[in-house]
Specification:
By secondary structure, the chain is an alpha/beta fold. It has one domain: Zn peptidases (Aminopeptidase). Helices cover 19% and strands 20% of the residues. The protein contains 6 helices and 10 strands, in the order ββββββαββααβααβα. The protein has helices spanning 150-157, 176-181, 220-232, 255-265, 281-288, 305-318, and strands at residues 59-60, 71-76, 96-103, 109-117, 123-130, 135-142, 162-163, 166-173, 236-242, 293-299. A hairpin with a 5-residue loop joins β4 (109-117) and β5 (123-130). α4 packs antiparallel against α6.
Amino acid sequence: MIPRIAIVAVGCALLVACGPGSASLDESASGTGAGATVVPGAVAATGVPATEALVAPATTTSIPVTVPEPSLVTSVAPATVATSTEPPTTVADAPAVAQVETTSAADDFLGEEILGYSVQGRPIMASHRGTAGGTVVLVVGVIHGNENAGIAILDALRALPVPVGVDLWLMDAVNPDGLANDERGNGNQVDLNRNFPHDWTPIAQVGEWEYSGTGPASEPETQAFIAFAQRIQPELTLWYHQDLFRISPSSRRDGPLRERYAQLTGLPVLSVTGGTYTGVAATWTRTSLPDAMSFIIELGPALSADEAVVHASAVLDIVTMI
């Protein structure tokens, strides 16, 4: 979510009050406003003027399947809630306590789609599995290209059993250019997490880390995501960022889901403050789609393979609470 000096993500926090979105990214606030993130020492990069690009028409390669007979797997009980803001070095024990019916990755693949194309021409992809017509859940691994630990969680979600009744969409990266270039912004150096139409404001200039683009949804990646989300209507959308190691609290109906995810993964529930948070993807999703829940999960600076599985299991646990 946030650049840092010398390494990819956040080092030290600097409180910045700028623009109408300054103050707090306490997502328990009303959806009509904006929040904020911890802002590190800004690292400027040279860039070219932002240009608008058209989204190529989405193509579909959906593969029809028959939903298999349910099997039984166990879900995990919550781990002890972490009291430190430092990432864990080991995965907490989580004994199984309940059984849920699931579908199998070998049988529940529902297809893959190209949703559009990035500024530099890379496809924006989403894969689809689970129970077609069930509760729609969307998980996004990367929006800031230099915060890529979420991809390992999506890889685990492609392999683990999915609860019956969950229609699961997995998007590795809404920002494939940033991912390929190991940069926060897209090919126009726009921070896509400041480019969404809800409460968009002009922030910074080309080459600066929080540059919000020439206008609301000016970028093809933003446009592609909006069209896709409006079509599938996810009831829950999860966004992975780094590396503040926390989940913001919420008093809305997603509050128990956030708390449960935090219990299962050891993430503390802490507010994020300090930056300009307008045009945010998660805020647009939960305020623009009917009955939608959407929240950010801030991972630590690194994620082991075992921790990725713990996070993926937490996703599959909280979807049963919807």
